[in-house]
């Protein structure tokens, strides 16, 4: 049986959630609530019920699940009210502006006995899935360094994302996704240090880009970069592993893999460069290297909601766990600290 579902916030992501709910095999859309009367009117014009207040939504006992898609700075109050009002809650990312706020939400979830999770939808991105599946398969061995990048050239959208008080900036906007993905690729590693450099090319109020290096106790490295002033984008993903390398130039492209079959070559021919000969950088041949492409994984982002519904019914464990969300938030907090200090810092769990 489908679960009655509502959305708080009828902006960009709120509309996205509504659209998916209207086509869902596990949800039945009950309506939306937004503090903006114009957005409530727009929903009504589209044939969607608009609750007049959050209290009215909470009072609708038929609604079991609510997604919160509002600016980051008001997540805490709204999420806790819904949980204590008897609703299961999904919160858009980033879940909170501090670890303390997150713990308040988790506490409300435990006290109410209601499910609480975060919409980490980019776990279903096909580029990430390709890298995760390659790492999990062991096909080219254990990852040594994984680099993840998102580049654009239009600066930060001129909405709440431009303002610090609302939780704007790229670490909280895109960083939360890239960090979450990297932590799942390196799910068995323990973080040793964090180093972050932020950029302020188009605005001084929030970070419009950043470079984040996460070093694990094993020596492995996760690197992520977001830029909003890059007119030529660097590759989306690069993996250096024990037995080879992998590259995704663009999320729409297949993964290119180079797997080392034999480390040594008997006769390495020097390569002529402009300034002389080199054997160190001589290219490999087909005798020692396999080069191929992996098929693009199949993905359905609505599997997130299917999992949430089963988790509510006790049929599955929720995929986005409190501990995973805690870790990502702590990494973001310590990234800001590293950037402020201008140095590498020891990671504190």
List the helices and strands and how they pair.
Layout: E1 3-8, H1 12-22, E2 27-33, H2 37-45, H3 54-59, E3 65-68, H4 75-84, E4 88-91, H5 99-112, E5 116-118, H6 126-137, E6 143-151, H7 170-185, E7 191-199, E8 209-216, E9 221-227, E10 237-241, E11 244-248, E12 255-260, E13 271-273, E14 276-278, E15 289-294, H8 303-312, H9 322-341, E16 345-346
Parallel strand pairs: 1-2, 1-3, 3-4, 4-5, 6-9
Antiparallel strand pairs: 6-10, 7-8, 7-16, 8-9, 10-11, 11-12, 12-15, 13-14
Helix pairs in contact: 4-5, 7-9
Key attributes of the depicted protein:
alpha/beta, Rossmann fold, Dihydrodipicolinate Reductase, domain 2, 2 domains, 9-stranded mixed sheet, 5-stranded parallel sheet, 9 helices, 31% helix
């Amino acid at each position: 049986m489908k679960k009655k579902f509502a959305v708080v916030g009828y902006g960009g992501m709120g509309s996205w959630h509504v659209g998916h709910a209207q086509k869902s095999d596990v949800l039945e859309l009950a309506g939306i609530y937004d503090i903006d009367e114009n957005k409530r009117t727009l929903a009504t014009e589209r044939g969607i019920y608009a609750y007049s207040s959050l209290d009215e939504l909470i009072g609708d006992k038929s609604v079991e699940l609510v997604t919160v898609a509002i600016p980051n700075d008001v997540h805490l109050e709204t999420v806790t009210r819904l949980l204590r009002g008897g609703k299961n809650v999904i919160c858009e990312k980033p879940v909170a502006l501090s670890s303390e706020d997150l713990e308040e939400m988790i506490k409300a979830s435990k006290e109410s006995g209601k499910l609480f999770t975060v919409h980490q939808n980019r776990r279903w991105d096909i580029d990430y899935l390709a890298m995760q599946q390659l790492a999990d398969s062991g096909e080219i061995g254990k990852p040594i360094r994984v680099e993840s990048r998102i580049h654009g050239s239009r600066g930060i959208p001129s909405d709440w994302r431009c303002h610090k008080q609302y939780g704007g900036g790229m670490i909280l906007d895109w960083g939360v996704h890239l960090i979450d993905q990297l932590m799942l690729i390196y799910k068995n590693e323990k973080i040793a240090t964090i180093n972050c450099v932020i950029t302020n090319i188009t605005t001084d109020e929030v970070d419009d880009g950043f470079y984040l290096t996460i070093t694990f106790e094993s020596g492995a490295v996760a690197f992520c970069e977001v830029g909003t002033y890059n007119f030529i984008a660097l590759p989306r993903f690069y993996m250096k592993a024990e037995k080879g390398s992998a590259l995704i130039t663009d999320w729409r492209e297949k993964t290119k893999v180079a797997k080392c079959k034999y480390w040594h070559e008997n006769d390495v021919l020097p390569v002529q460069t402009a300034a002389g000969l080199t054997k160190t950088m001589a290219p490999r041949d087909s005798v020692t290297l396999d080069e191929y492409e992996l098929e693009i994984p199949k993905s359905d982002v609505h599997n997130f909601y299917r999992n949430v519904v089963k988790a509510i019914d006790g049929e599955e464990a929720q995929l986005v766990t409190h501990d995973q969300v805690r870790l990502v938030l702590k990494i973001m907090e310590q990234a800001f600290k590293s950037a402020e200090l201008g140095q590498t810092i020891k990671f504190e769990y």
